[in-house]
Write a structure and sequence with these properties.
This protein is α+β, with helices and mostly antiparallel strands. The chain has helices at residues 4-29, 59-70, 74-89, 99-106, 110-119, 138-153, 168-184, 198-201, 213-249, 255-258, 262-280, 302-308, 310-324, 337-365, 372-418, 428-431, 476-505, 552-560, 639-652, 661-665, 678-682, and strands at 44-46, 52-54, 434-443, 449-456, 459-466, 591-599, 603-610, 616-623, 629-637, 656-658, 669-673. Strand 1 (44-46) and strand 2 form a beta hairpin.
């Protein structure tokens, strides 16, 4: 039987089927999402988790483009050219704002009417530019005529009338609409070569192939800031659409809580991004980035309010999701896209120190091949970058403290709601303000127990959960993996407990016997915390080596994933996770039984030991009123959690670091002593 013809036929049929599938599959699946930083041939790309980015022009480039188009209009270029000459020769500081000449141009009032007259709208009569020219309110009168003409021509809403001063953003948006219409009619001519070019005043950042490492990183800083501006504008636009639709429907959704601080963030970074883009386009020896924070420190406090209110905003947004899914969201998915956009301010705030640190490292590495004169200039730039990094860390620290306060307030409320019986010693007035809390594996007498510790300003309370708490559901596969991981970790740590028990028992100067170490597994927990901030203003000239960002794609991927500096993990009952509510309902929380409580004023010393397993053992020594001593041991704390406890204890108790023999033998041991008990602990007095 001859099967050759049949085989050829089937082969051709399979080839045709593959070609047909290759052509139809993209149509069925829609546009393909590219990887981060991948090249693209169209005007779209995907940078965030699920957000499609269209071609975007930053506020810095929009202002420059408007200047270039106005210079192509003969009736307005004469006025603008003189303003640009003054802007180029004036000494305005380390950076120039491209919106400054536009504001100067449009403040005259009659220049706006020149543009409106160029429009030749049939609904607007020609405005007399000399009307009331000799009166004191000439500029204000011309501006009012302009807005009245814009309303008649359909370029603005009637709400702009009667307003004493409209925002510059509204003016620029209206002028952009006029210029678009004039450009469609062919009224914009060619730029006069005699005029100064705006790009010579406001440079654009670029990184040529083979450029030095620090220039590539500065370019990445500029590009990621532009991407962040696009995210903020998308989020602000989404908030505007939702407010407009829900207000019309009379919904009871709390949009003020959900979109709190979004408009302030957009206004702040509209100025901040312009400064970054301007300095990124300057020569390397003129990139003094510490100036970008000038007169903006007070405005950066908006991040403190944003981070502190994310718990409440997330709960309100989760409650509003069923309604948000039914309205027009402008092409954004309210479940995935908007949730990613809400995380962007927190991620971006944590990236600034990393970016500036990477630039400082690259600048330090480039100093080896420079002459003495060039090194002197480069050192000035390094100091400026270092100060910018310190500024960003301080802003990050303030946001962290605001978030901690909000978390502590929620935890304090949950504590008094859950505790079974509150004695007079544990009343809200007696314990003071909550500093920190968390689940710890602790012991004070016999064996380790899983307890909940609450550090107040006057009292340290250890509680035991009564009854099983109904934790959030998780998949059976995930619970199996978690149990398997805990089994392996517990087995590996049993030997470590035996080795480290002798070290931890000698870390404190105590007259009481050291309790034996237990072997029960711990469930440690951390809060939304940032690393300890060093606010020393004297920068070193040589930065310590760190891992540098090696490409634009790496920085973009860093921008789109949670930063290692800010960790969203639950405290006792509060979480910043997007999939859970910040505070669990009371009927899902177990009750608390106050096992022990100690006055913080009686804490005599604390010892912190870094174990080989990577965890931390924290020992707290308490002098009781009857003269006896009690020792509390928190084991298997993460380094972040231990740092929080030590920092909060030092804020509550006047603890002073002390060097002793144990510290000399073990570099991972740190001892802090209360000067009030220094004689009984150390046998000598130490200053406060």
């Amino acid at each position: 039987m001859n099967t050759t013809g049949t085989g050829v036929f089937h082969g051709r049929l399979a080839s045709l089927a593959l070609r047909f599938t290759a052509k139809c599959l993209p149509i069925c699946l829609g546009p393909r999402r590219r990887a981060l930083g991948s090249p693209t041939t169209d005007d779209t790309t995907s940078h965030a988790i699920s957000i499609r980015r269209t071609a975007y022009v930053s506020p810095y480039d929009r202002a420059i483009y408007m200047i270039e188009r106005l210079l192509r209009l003969p009736s307005i270029s004469t006025y603008l050219y003189a303003i640009l000459i003054d802007e180029n020769t004036a000494s305005t500081g380390p950076y120039k704002d491209p919106t400054a000449p536009l504001k100067t141009l449009f403040d005259h009032g009659y220049t706006l009417n020149i543009l409106l007259n160029e429009l030749e709208s049939p609904f607007v009569s020609t405005i007399n530019l000399l009307e009331r020219v000799d009166e004191p309110g000439y500029q204000q009168h011309q501006t009012e005529l302009f807005w009245q003409g814009c309303v008649d021509a359909g370029l603005a809403l009637p709400e702009v009338l009667g307003t004493q001063e409209n925002s510059l953003e509204l003016v620029l948006a209206t002028v952009t609409a006029i210029l678009d219409t004039l450009q469609e009619r062919g009224r914009l001519g060619s730029p006069d070569p005699r005029y100064i070019k705006p790009r010579s005043i406001y440079p654009a950042a670029h990184a040529a192939p083979g450029a030095p490492r620090h220039l590539v990183l500065v370019f990445e800083l500029s590009q990621t800031e532009v991407a962040y501006m696009q995210d903020l504008e998308q989020l602000a636009g989404f908030a505007k659409r939702v407010r407009a639709q829900l207000d019309c429907e009379g919904s009871d959704i709390d949009t003020m809580t959900i979109f709190a601080h979004i408009d302030q963030l957009l206004a702040l970074h509209s100025k901040f991004s312009m400064r970054i883009q301007y300095l990124a386009g300057m020569p390397p020896d003129h990139q003094f980035f510490d100036a970008i924070y000038n007169d903006l420190f007070a405005e950066f406090d908006v991040y403190s309010g944003f981070c502190a209110s994310r718990e409440q905003a997330q709960r309100a947004y989760t409650a509003a999701l069923p309604i948000l899914k039914q309205i027009n969201c402008g092409g954004l998915d309210p479940v995935f896209d908007v949730t990613s956009l809400f995380m962007r301010p927190v991620q971006r705030l944590a990236q600034y120190p990393i970016l500036f640190q990477s630039i400082v490292d690259a600048l330090c590495d480039s100093c080896a091949s420079l002459s003495l004169q060039e090194k002197a200039k480069r050192i000035l730039v390094i100091k400026s970058m270092y100060r910018a990094m310190q500024h960003s860390k301080r802003i990050l620290s303030r946001a962290n403290e605001a978030t901690r306060e909000a978390t502590n307030q929620a935890n304090c409320t949950n504590f008094f709601d859950r505790v079974d019986s509150v004695s007079s010693d544990l009343s809200e007035e007696a314990v003071g303000r909550l500093m920190t809390s968390g689940k710890v594996s602790a012991k004070s007498t016999k064996d380790y127990e899983d307890l909940e510790a609450y550090l107040f300003t006057r009292t340290l309370v250890l509680c035991k959960a009564i009854g099983p708490a109904q934790s959030s559901r998780s998949s059976k596969f995930r619970r199996t993996l978690s149990s398997f991981h805990m089994t392996i970790r517990t087995t590996s740590l049993h030997r470590e407990d035996r080795r480290s028990s002798s070290v931890s028992s000698s870390t404190l100067h105590t007259r009481s016997p050291t309790p034996d170490s237990g072997e029960c597994p711990a469930r440690t927990n951390t809060e939304f915390q940032l690393p300890t901030i060093n606010t020393n203003d004297s920068p070193p000239l040589i930065s310590p080596p760190t891992k540098l960002l090696n490409s634009y794609a790496s920085l973009v991927s860093l921008r789109d994933k949670p930063s290692p500096l800010i960790k969203f993990t639950s405290s006792v009952d509060v979480t910043i996770s997007g999939s859970e509510c910040a505070a669990q309902p009371k009927n899902r929380l177990s009750r608390l039984c106050a096992r022990e409580h100690y006055p913080t004023a009686a804490i005599s010393q604390i010892s912190q030991v870094h174990e080989l397993s990577g965890t931390v053992r924290l020992t707290i020594q308490v002098m009781m009123a009857n003269g006896s001593e009690r020792m509390l041991v928190f084991r298997r704390l993460t380094q972040e959690s231990a740092a929080i406890w030590v920092r909060m204890l030092k804020r509550t108790v006047p603890l002073v670091p002390v060097d002793d023999e144990n510290a000399a033998q073990n570099a991972y041991h740190c001892l802090h002593v209360n000067p009030r008990f220094s004689k009984s602990v150390l046998g000598r007095s130490i200053p406060m």
